Automatic annotation (TrEMBL):
It holds the Pfam family Methyltransf_25. GO terms for biological process: methylation. Keywords: Methyltransferase, Transferase. GO terms for molecular function: methyltransferase activity. Residues 49-133 form the Methyltransferase domain. The keyword Transferase applies. This is Methyltransferase domain-containing protein.
Amino acid sequence: MALLSGRGNRHRSDTAPMVAARRRLLDAGVFDPVAQALAAAIDPEAAVVVDAGAGTGRYLAAVLDAAPRAVGIGLDLSKYCARAVARAHPRAIAVVADLWEPIPVADGTADAVLSVFAPRNVAETVRMLAPDGRWLLVTPNPGHLHEVREPLGMLEIGADKLDRLHADLTAGGLQVRGSTPLTATALLDAEQLADLAGMGPAGFHRTEDELHAAAQALTAAAEALPVTLDVTLTVAVPAAN
């Protein structure tokens, strides 16, 4: 089921081609290590899981499989993401919502909140979290996709990104319970490299032809290119815990 907020917003949301590109990569298992880490970190007794910036719902579905009593609420600004989330798992519902506005989830009801490569509204997340809830955040490290970021026109990652995240969490009344690096290597062909760039902000700034040309150039010497996944899974809880 998908719900619409009925309100306009000033932010750009993922387009249908961007969501399709993300789904192809996720279906190919490229980001399975991230999904597995999230599933391992969830409390199996969780009853309500909110995925803030849910994308296709793939990560939410992995967590719901590991928490068999839970209902999942996938929040995303994109109606195309919401449609994907609504089909991602039998216990998932989708809500089109701007994460920078008040989020339509009741105070203290979320046993877990997921933020996976997504914007983070600390105040709203603290409000939603149950007293013993946990916030699971996946953020890229400087080495993430380093082989292809520049040639594919992808955003750079600041060296202090993780430190700034932890400072924001602490300032917002949260305690960092754990911070686990996760690295893996994916072998991607030209089509997958184009999808990798096209599913993110580069999809707004470069045409499909430009992305495919850049991806073909990267694989001119071989059919596929090893690409590094380098992220950190941070677990934060209300400071009173």
